[in-house]
UniProtKB/TrEMBL annotation:
InterPro entries: DUF1361
Annotated protein name in UniProt: DUF1361 domain-containing protein
Transmembrane feature ranges: 7-26, 38-56, 63-87, 114-134, 146-164, 194-216
Domain of life of the native organism: Bacteria
One Pfam short name: DUF1361
Keywords (A to Z) from UniProt: Membrane, Transmembrane, Transmembrane helix
Coiled-coil stretches noted in the UniProt entry, renumbered to this chain: none
UniProt keyword Transmembrane helix, yes or no: yes
Keyword Phosphoprotein belongs to the record: no
Amino acid sequence: MKTINQWILQLLLALLSLSTIGIYFYFKNQTYFEFLNWNLFLAWIPNLFALLTYLLHLRRPSLIVHVFMFIFGLGWLLFLPNAPYIITDFIHLTLLKELYITKKAWSMEYWNDFFTIFLYAWNGLLLGCSSMYMIHVVMTKHWGHILSWLLMIVTSLLSGYGILLGREYRLNSWDALLDIDIVNTLEKSIHKEAIIFCVLVGFVIFAMYTTFYLLINGIGSTRLATNRR
């Protein structure tokens, strides 16, 4: 796996997020929702947890380092679904479709909102892939390539389940620690349709991460041959 300059990557992600927020305020109207900014903030949390874990793994191994890596790793896993979750915010365009139709045609506000939500979703996906890559690097160092890839698959499926809990059951990441009734909610969420949803969304997340991984590592690329005299 190639090592990414994390400071440059984080700077680019921050600039993208700030640009997205700026576009949001430029096109903001009565059909829009400020929760997009909150969701983007939540999407940054797993990326920050992953960055802390990644930076710790570069230090000299010790008990305290491994303890904090474990804590930050759990925080990353708990908040990771918030990154790809923003994709589901497209549903609000459907819920408010009557507000976007004028004279039986889609208004320009619809397209402005569509592409603004797309930018937020793209932010979330990049933040999620960035955090998964950092954790993947750490896992590969400690457990090898095969096990680390298997854990990435499991992580993607768990993220799909997290999105289900957030969208359908309105749970937040911190409810895993604060909601005393969460066990009953989890029991209700286990059924055939939910499993299909988790597998589908998990596959989408894993496919996107794999694409990110291949682009970073240049798999399949070839060096152009040049004739030299």
